[in-house]
Amino acid sequence: MLENPAFMPNRSGMLNDPLSDVLKLANVQSLVTGGFAASGQWAIRFPAPDKIKFFAAVRGACWLQLEGEASPLRLEPGDVILLAAKRNFVLASDLTATPHDSHELFAGRSEPMVAVDGVAIADADVVQIGGHVHLHHSYGALLADVLPTYIHVHGAAPEAQALRWILDQLQRERADLPGSSLATMQLGYLLFIQVLRAHLAAGGALRAGWLRAATDARLAPALRLIHGEPGRAWRLDQLARAAAMSRTSFATHFKAVAGEAPLSYLTRWRMRLAEQALRRGDAPVATLAETLGYASESAFSHAFKRVVGLSPRHYGEQLRDRGADDAARAAVDGL
């Protein structure tokens, strides 16, 4: 097996973190895109988001009425909502008020913060910030499909202490400080991770899948082995021993948490790494096969097609065709 090829992370001198590995694979980007300020009686209607959306009550309280939910949620100062479901929703001081349409309210605005009905932001009763989580089109389901409909982190909860600091920092970055764009981007990413941490710390559940597995303390030692050396011929007993569990208990727990058997997870993790390498053009197929623990290029190609649905060669051709189409669209858009 090759040592530390270009498409594989170098684990020397560090303890790998399964959650970070999964977030990196999904190419998570959490972007704070703006917000609004309001006073008195107001309401804003938002369409179903096409991405995971988040919003936070920086100042004041309001109601959230989510389509399909019988009762509204009360958002107090410091509360953060992560909305994974594609549902319409309304934010309001009074849910009986006639709502503004969010598209009309935010359209054509150059400033990130919008003043509802002309209220001065400094004097507003309520200030909210919001954004979305961008995921890679191929791997986003690893996260989006296992999240609950929404996560509500209460600002007064002990596990929200870090979130309160992040919200304060995001407010400071509104002052257009040097480097504020990059700082805001990094704070948005940290906010997403802290929402997940706070949800889990409060006993919140995730559906079976990779994200849940990556946050499971009992599976962490085994996942570190798989992620750290995906090309090694790991056996079930080795992974169970790392997790300090019997083979049967480990296999049962792993499938309940990850939604698949340990060695199936290993195979799919290898193929996700291979997909990344093929997208970047980091390595020929023969190198991928050797690095990921396959005895031959044909054995690797067979496994790749079984998981991905295409052979490595056809997958690469599809990527090139898609890249050409994207370039053509960009050229037309630029005319």
Automatic annotation (TrEMBL):
Q: Does DNA-binding show up as a keyword for this record?
A: yes
Q: Which domain of life is it from?
A: Bacteria
Q: Quote the InterPro entries the UniProt record gives.
A: AraC_lig (IPR032783), AraC_XylS_family_regulators (IPR050204), Homeodomain-like_sf (IPR009057), HTH_AraC (IPR018060), HTH_AraC-typ_CS (IPR018062)
Coiled-coil segments: none
Q: Which UniProt keywords apply?
A: DNA-binding, Transcription, Transcription regulation
Q: Where is the signal peptide?
A: none
Classification via Pfam families: Cupin_6, HTH_18
Q: Does the keyword RNA-binding apply?
A: no
**What would you give as a GO molecular function for this chain, any one?**
DNA-binding transcription factor activity
Ranges for domain HTH araC/xylS-type: 220-318
- What name goes with this protein? AraC family transcriptional regulator
Query: What organism does the record attribute this protein to?
Result: Dyella japonica DSM 16301
Lineage runs:
Bacteria, Pseudomonadati, Pseudomonadota, Gammaproteobacteria, Lysobacterales
